[in-house]
């Protein structure tokens, strides 16, 4: 077994929590059950990794088997990577039969025609997800197994989830290989990124049920109240306002947890309306800007704005529509004239 393969297997084992090493090696299936019985999984991970490497040497492991172990690890811990969503388009609406063997053949042939030094591995899962691991090299160097790209493609859907390596210059090659293999003609990034792969799937596959606002804030009614009952009135109004905010927040976001989205971006185009006498604008041209949102948990952060008193309830559709709009457009473009007057960052 090559020394680089042995070192890669050792490092992969070290990444796995000690209590889960045996289970993951069983899923890998490269070592027999009898071999696994000889490993002491209660010792420190460094010693466990050395014993695993020794057994892999007995079985003459190569980089293909090592890559499969890495795919299993990333499938169990997808949150260790940052994922982006891409959507593909085709000219017609016809539905073609998906042939996995043909897909693999086309993908490898297209990628290797552009770059010889590349390692490509596939693994299929029960949810029709095809996991693809790509280790990139250069015309003069071998593939770097520590700077890999991952692709998760669900057959019969136009959506692709990509966790790119630091070598972003290879993204055009990867996208072109996906288009050729899946018989699509165009691919674009949807400007959605997150560590939570499952949350991104929930959004684009519409597994996330979100309500949309139908209520608008009403001004509090003023009443003539005797001074001695002023404190009671204020307490009651505060209670009513809190209940109203909770009800409207529930109408907009629902009762369940929000998908974990960390980044969203879209283009905004609107007309700036001002007093003609002020002569602010010589020409009536649309106001264009790029709106970016980022947070460790973007949707939960938006959900907490109104209860925290940082925004009126219900929130603007500009904020609450992010998951819905993301499913329908590559980059969200709001209608003109939606926000007259001044522009305030939320």
Automatic annotation (TrEMBL):
Keywords: Centromere, Chromosome, Nucleus. It is found in: Chromosome, Centromere; Nucleus. GO terms for cellular component: chromosome, centromeric region; nucleoplasm. InterPro entries: CENP-NAC/CAD_complex, Chl4/mis15/CENP-N. GO terms for biological process: CENP-A containing chromatin assembly; chromosome segregation. The keyword Oxidoreductase does not apply. It holds the Pfam family CENP-N. Belongs to the CENP-N/CHL4 family. This is Centromere protein N.
